[in-house]
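Final report, Chapter 2: Outcomes

The project's central promise was a pipeline that accepts a single protein chain and returns its three-dimensional structure in a standardized token representation, suitable for archiving and comparison. That pipeline is now operational. To close this chapter, we reproduce one record exactly as it appears in the project archive, with the input sequence first and the structure output second.
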Amino acid sequence: QVQLVESGGGLVQAGGSLRLSCVASGSIVRINAMGWYRQAPGKQRELVANVTSGGSRNYADSVKGRFTISAAKNTVYLEMNSLKPEDTAVYYCNAGLVVTFPVRNLDVWGQGTLVTVSS
């Protein structure tokens, strides 16, 4: 089985920084894309940022200039700076993978890590 494990969430004051990490493990042949979504209470889940196998990076307008996504091997990071209370949410790692056995495409989600930004 394949698995995504997130870490780095916690409580931080407004204006502070936090770094999230997500590690993919298992019978992975290829990572097509990895990214971060978030869901605040009473809100729908939204894309925060992702990176594709070709190196293309995408960001939600609300985090441009403050968040940076990067990837190395089977790990994706989200560097969050100048955090605002509006960033408070559960952050979920997501990966589009090619896995074995059998060889197949698979979308995998982590369990989420809570980020709380106090004012």
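Archive annotation: The two ends are 40 Å apart (CA to CA).
This record, like all others produced under the grant, will remain available to the consortium after the project formally closes.
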